[in-house]
Amino acid sequence: MLPWLLCGILALAAAILAWKLFFLCRSLDQLARQTGERLDQDTNNLLFTSTRDRAVRRLAAELNKHLHRLRQARQQYENGDRALKEAITSISHDLRTPLTAIWGYLELLEREELPDSAQRCLSQVDERVQAMRQLTEELFRYSVAVSAGEELHLEPVDLKAALEESAASFYAVLCAQGITPVITMPEERVVRSLDRGALSRVLGNLFQNALKYSAGDLNISLDSQGTIQFSNRTAQIGEVQTARLFDRFFTVETGRSSTGLGLSIAKTLVEQMGGSISAQYDGGRLTVSIEFRQPVL
Fold first, then answer.
1. Which of 38, 64, 147, 219 is most enclosed, with most CB atoms within 10 A?
2. Angle made by CA atoms 138, 141, 144, in degrees to the nearest 5
């Protein structure tokens, strides 16, 4: 009789432990799911658990504390990032007016008969002013690009026609540098829902990148799936630099005249239009790829 009683007690204890373990696991799964949802969503909702287990409740309370701190840190970052973008926009805009005035006075001075020494100094000043104008213009364009995604006007755009138009506008400049572009495109139209102006800026920045770093060639291709590739030989960029090409203000050693914003702007605009952009370096060739996969319905 005693062994049967002992077995019954052990079976009851095992059942109670299994029941407790089941609800404990369910509570932990509930907390894990809620934590993932709170991290993905911008919400002040707290984690909750239906269990009465003290350890699980302490865990939920501790997670809520950390989530609260994380929300505060995220909000501070977003406010700081927004303030930085507004400051960049304001500063670059304010600099454009005096730089334009300086440029005008320089043009007037160039018409005067000046000694050779003065002409050399004037030429140096002219170069510095051009560099400053380029920097402020790209800063302004970047700040607008990263903060005005909602202003994009999406419409059906033929990638083939847009690429042909952009290539035609850069053809003379490329040839002047000894670069004859080889362009491959499908016969049929490749239409995507894009912002025409943003796409033109993206393609222009890719052509500018090729002008800076090409070793004398440029292959451009578009396929029927909406993938555009710019590929060229380069001795100036390696795998390490390629990994950072889309970073803000990053320039390679030989590109000091660059602001380092062109490809960063291109990345921002491409992603705002629902595409993706990447760069690969293989065997001395740099390839920048843009993918617009979603066709117009």
1. 38
2. 150
Distance, in Å, from the CA atom of 57 to the CA atom of 27, rounded to the nearest integer, reads 10
- Listed in sequence order, the DSSP H helices in the chain are 2-40, 54-110, 116-147, 159-176, 196-213, 239-243, 262-272
What the block records as the tokens of 107 is: 């043009």
Distances from the Cα of 78 to the Cαs of 52, 81, 275, in angstroms?
A: 37, 5, 24
Q: Two tokens at 250?
A: 């990053």
pLDDT in tens, 127-142: 777 777 777 777 666 6
DSSP code of residue 249: T
Mean pLDDT, contiguous 10-residue spans, the chain (297 residues): 67 72 75 76 74 78 82 75 68 72 79 80 80 72 60 88 93 90 93 92 89 89 94 79 69 52 83 91 90 76
Q: Residue 106's pLDDT is what?
A: 80
Percent of the chain past pLDDT 90, that is, above it, reads 24
Cβ 207 vs Cβ 168: under 8 Å: no
- Which region, left, alpha or beta, applies to residue 42 given φ > 0 means left and ψ of -120 to 50 means alpha? beta
- For residue 156, list its beta bridge partners: 193
Q: Which residue has the tokens 């350890």?
A: 55
**Residues 139, 127: Cα–Cα separation, whole Å:** 18
The structure tokens 């004398």 sit at 216
Which of 152-177 are b and which e, b meaning 16 or more Cβ less than 10 Å from the residue's Cβ?
beeeebebbebbeebbeebeeebeee
184 alpha-carbon distance from chain centroid: 27
